[in-house]
Amino acid sequence: MRRTLTAIVWLGIWLSIPGSVFASSAWWVLCDSCTTDTAFRHQALNAPGSYTPIYVTNRETNETRKYNRWTFLEDFDTGVVQWTEVVTADFPVTEKSVFQQAVQDASRLVAPISRSDLSGVLLGTDVPSSVVRDISDGRLRASYFSQIRLHLEDNGYLPDFESVSRDLGVDTPIGGLSGGVGNTIRKRSLIIIVSYDDGSRVSLVRLPDGTLVEIEVLDADGNLIPVQGQQDNGSVPIATTEFNGIRLGFGQGPGNALALEALADRIGGTGSGLDCHVSGSGNTLTLTCTKVK
């Protein structure tokens, strides 16, 4: 018995040494198949390293349980045996609510965004009131989608172990069986709609792996503006060859007319064989493109 107690005390001291390979912090496991106490405990027991406490979350039921984990050494005549035990830990409501909120945020299916809410607006310039300002050079720039990603992160659509750690006030590395891309816990697709003051908009879908698909650009009347898929450099070019016979409407606003003129010149100057011109009436700007005869 003395040898057993000595071994346990020695291990406890080792675990408490700063910078040791066993120095512990919290660990978070995602287990969407966990429904029984046995399943939750099994995940806590088999979490990597010597981390404790262990949080185990089922995102489908939005249930998180917290465990303390202890490792012991017993010195028998035949040798030293190591064994691990997990016990249910105190889990205050304020702490539990952080995990619940993260799962709820990761389950949201639609992210409505006002163009004025996107970051990256230059000082001294106004926020674009129409999508034509963002495509005047013939593409949606990669930075446009970077701004969207930052907005999603800042507004809780992509919770991860870092954001949860900040809310908890602890350093919580994430582990698990079915995480999202990188550290995010999101596993559902997200519909993103960026709206402009004149009624034009950009819509897209973020897949669980972070890929952006179904990117659509629409004018103020809901007409599709032809675009290509996202390129390797992150930009989305307009499909200039598909503008034949198209008629698009945008609202009047600072810089909108100049932007639409620039877009018309770009479409007509790309060898598309199209003649595009801009007209204005009241609060509406119109772009019309026809085949050059």
Q: How is this fold's topology laid out?
A:
Elements: H1 2-16, E1 27-30, H2 37-45, E2 54-58, E3 63-76, E4 79-88, H3 93-107, E5 110-114, E6 139-140, H4 142-154, H5 161-168, E7 174-176, E8 190-195, E9 201-206, E10 212-218, E11 224-225, E12 236-237, E13 247-251, H6 256-268, E14 274-281, E15 284-291
Parallel strand pairs: 1-2, 1-7, 5-8
Antiparallel strand pairs: 2-3, 3-4, 6-12, 8-9, 9-10, 10-11, 13-15, 14-15
Which descriptors would you attach to this protein?
293 residues, alpha+beta, five-stranded mixed β-sheet, disordered N terminus
Your description of this structure?
It contains six helices and 15 strands. With 293 residues, it is of the alpha+beta class. The protein has a five-stranded mixed sheet with strand order 4-3-2-1-7. Strands 5-8-9-10-11 form a five-stranded mixed sheet, covered by helices on one side. The longest helix has 15 residues, at 2-16. It is elongated, with a radius of gyration of 28 Å. The N and C termini lie far apart (99 Å). 30% of the residues are buried.
